[in-house]
Write a structure and sequence with these properties.
This protein folds into 3 domains: 225 residues, Cupin (Jelly Rolls); 47 residues; 113 residues, Outer Surface Protein A, domain 3. The chain has 11 helices and 20 strands. Strand 2 and strand 3 form a beta hairpin.
Length: 408
């Protein structure tokens, strides 16, 4: 994660960004526009290429955001009338490749990262609101003024805005309902907004749950990048759903056999009580390795990429190898599915591989060395001679964990 975010945020995207600021604080990185070249450029927008859904947005006379879907042919008319254009550009090939890498190196998740392009004429922008997703804003052209706070709600499920009376309310599935802060009290309208002017080459990170409003000081073109969310709640519920779905009592309908006055029918109450006890027993039996493996499966196998299938040439001691993916790989020593022994699970983008538990020391050492000479692997497990070590490396190369690299 550090390399990609450092490329966007500069010094502000260093190692402490993930532990101290991710999901909590607004972070500003200033730099040269050229660093955004691998992602997107204003020239791509000028060609109107690879635009997905397009919205036109404006702020009405009451300070409320109004937004509607438009045809791409209406873009110029909407801009001329003072509206902001918001276009999904996630499918642009160059950007799509960067988004895939960002997803792998930030919050691996079966969901995908996405990107939207915002184009505003002078004076246009968005009313005060909060999002439920992470945002990295790349300013490509012009200057845009942001009014922003740090996160006031931790990892919100829904976005928010101020209603006509100035009260914070949800958008989305809970539209209009009051927003509660992390303590459960009604959230108050923000009073501590700070102003940040973004110029071309600037990158701004806005966490979920942070209030923000924007206004273009001239014609502004900006790209918004959003990595996916990957929460413990999703992982735990997925594990429970998979296990409970195997049990007939959880799949049977709750049928009322007759109409009754008063409380819940005794047969329904008994079934639900039995399910509650079953759930409590299942949760009590869950171990850390089960949850860690569930995370790895979701994070690494969801992309559906095929592993390398070509047969590599024989390996020589002086050959140099490197990790094949920018996101590396994950290894986990855990009980086998039948519970009889431990096995070593390996994950990289596209799949899960299983090795004997005895390979754990070898793989653990491999994970710490992104690039190495093949003969160096003889130091990772004293039980292996060159032929055995080379065979393990070839297996990992065939599976796509490793690749040959050119001599220095």
């Amino acid at each position: 994660m550090t390399d990609l975010l450092a490329a966007l945020l500069g010094d502000a995207g260093g190692p402490e960004f993930r532990t101290e600021h991710w999901g909590r604080h607004v972070v500003l990185g200033r730099g040269e526009l050229a660093r955004f070249a691998p992602w997107y450029s204003a020239q791509l927008w000028a060609r109107r290429g690879h635009l997905g859904a397009v919205d036109a947005a404006r702020i009405d006379d009451h300070g409320q955001q109004q937004q509607m879907v438009i045809d791409p042919l209406q873009i110029d008319h909407a801009l001329a009338s003072g509206q902001t254009i918001c276009a999904d550009v996630s499918s642009e090939p160059q950007l799509a490749a960067q988004l895939a890498m960002l997803r792998m190196t930030t919050t691996p998740s079966p969901e995908q990262a996405f990107a939207k392009l915002y184009v505003s004429p002078p004076g246009a922008g968005f009313a005060l609101h909060m999002d439920a997703h992470h945002v990295l804003v790349l300013q490509l052209e012009g200057t845009k003024r942001w009014q922003v706070t740090d996160a006031v709600v931790s990892a919100p499920l829904w976005g928010g805005k101020l209603d006509a009376r100035g009260r914070p309310v949800h958008t989305g599935e809970r539209a209009g309902e009051p927003i509660e802060d992390d303590s459960g009290a009604p959230l108050q309208a923000p009073t501590d907004l700070r102003s940040i002017d973004l110029a071309p080459g600037d990158c701004l990170y806005v966490p979920p749950g942070a209030w923000h409003a924007t206004c273009a000081l001239g014609t502004s073109v900006a790209l918004s990048i959003s990595p996916p969310r990957a929460t413990p709640l999703r992982i735990l519920l997925h594990v429970l759903e998979q296990e409970l779905a195997r049990r007939p009592m959880w799949r049977e309908d709750l049928v009322r056999d007759r109409v009754e006055d008063g409380g819940v029918p005794a047969s329904i109450a008994a079934r639900l009580s039995s399910c509650r006890r079953d759930l409590a027993a299942l949760v009590a039996d869950l171990d850390d390795a089960t949850l860690q493996r569930a995370w790895a499966v979701e994070a690494f196998t969801s992309a559906g990429l095929a592993a390398a299938a070509a047969q590599p040439p024989p390996l020589r001691p002086d050959d140099r190898l490197e990790h094949a993916d920018a996101g590396g790989f994950v290894h986990l020593l855990a009980p086998a599915e039948d519970g009889t022994t431990e096995v070593l699970y390996l994950y990289r983008e596209g799949g899960e591989w299983i090795l004997p538990a005895t390979a754990h020391g070898f793989v653990r050492a491999l994970a710490e060395v992104p690039r190495f000479r093949a003969a160096a692997s003889l130091n990772w497990d004293p039980r292996l001679d060159w032929d055995a070590a080379a065979e393990v490396l070839l297996q990992l190369e065939r599976a796509g964990f490793l690749r040959r690299c050119a001599p220095p």
